TrEMBL record:
UniProt source species: Streptomyces bingchenggensis (strain BCW-1)
Stretches assigned to the FAD dependent oxidoreductase domain: 31-394
GO cellular component: cytoplasm
Protein known as: FAD dependent oxidoreductase
InterPro entries according to UniProt: FAD-dep_OxRdtase, FAD/NAD-bd_sf
Highest taxon of the lineage: Bacteria
Amino acid sequence: MINGQISFWMQDTAASARPERPPLDGDTTVDVCVVGAGYTGLWTAYWLRQALPDASILVVEAHHVGYGASGRNGGWLSGKMIGLSRHMAEGPGGRQAVLELRRAAVDAFDEILGIMADHAVDVDAVHGGYLTIGRTPSELARLRAAVAAERDWGMTEDDVRLLSAAETADRISIDGVLGALYSPHNVRLHPGKLVTGLASAAEAAGVRIAERTPALDIRPGQVRTAHGTVTARHILRATEGYTAQLPGRRRDMLPMNSSMVITEPLSEADWKTIGWAGGEALSGAQHTYFYAQRTADNRIALGGRGLPYRFGSRVDRDGRLDRWTIGQLAGVLRGLWPGVPFELAHAWCGSLGVPRDWSPSVVWDRATGLGHAGGYVGQGVTASYLAGRTLADLVAGKDTRYTRLPWSGRTSPRWEPEPLRWLGSYAMYGLYRVADLSEGSTRHERTSAFARLADTITGRH
């Protein structure tokens, strides 16, 4: 089994699709400098070239395209709510802006896949929706409540519905399932192929990408890097889970760890046991969340939190995963399908950006020329596309559907100083693990008090 080396997705992407791009070679001046060559930075640069075709745009990246969460995620192009509805509705657009964000997320599926098709990039896309399964009475009760909450926000039976145990089993055979939430609004895809294809599309539009060029300091009009200083009228930060590594940004965004394993391809007999022919993305309603997909080459890729956070907002080294978390994720696989003999092929981890209020922001200051976008809390494949369009339109001075989305101009409070961040993160996931054990043993419909306490500590609900 391979451990780390960024991710299976990046290793599986053809070498021709991920060329080595030279670093910056001395000082330079451009119209726009984007910091970060993940989804957000690349979509921002791509859409800026559409809006401002004469602008010179440079993307500087500390490592290589797709090094961060864009090359390591679960591959869900999802229509789920981005951020917490109550926070996103606090802006001037109110409830209507939140509903528009939901509609824009679903519309993004065809837009993203259309751009990839225009550039002859196959991202292994299957529009199969997503399932969230419940295997205890409390999990099933939470799924009922989730469907009711979606109805309150205007979602219909066509958007989300509850499946019975039998209806769930028709789609996928999982040990002990009582029911599931189903939504058609999800596309399963290959994250590595998407981020490398997006980089190629941005370059074809005239964007320059400088890899192995870490930003050391960002200020109005200037980005100081390890290989020279970039002078630019507009400087846009798209650093997501790596934001805390920048000077003065340690408490802006918490780099929450997310871990994944992927199996070797399963046999035809194993797939007859499992089912899962519809390409749905899969997750669980337990508090120690998991997410999964069936890949185009018949593997199962499954992720979860593992060790949630590193003291001082440190991040991983090239995605290497600890042995305990690998064992935990392997245990989730065995618990879902106890009769299937899994062999793990690759394990890795990465950091996603979590704001203190669990809700994203897109900000651009006309006076300073500084802007940033991020804080998607696990919904970044879709959110980064919309945020990139928002940031590009703000810089271009346009009033569009995207600039009116509820994240425009909003800010989040800062995280607490250490050791409170570390203590809070581990307390939260410790309580969630105890809650899952409690709910599994008592079989009550009521959510465990341990989980309710964790939600209160973190402000998630």
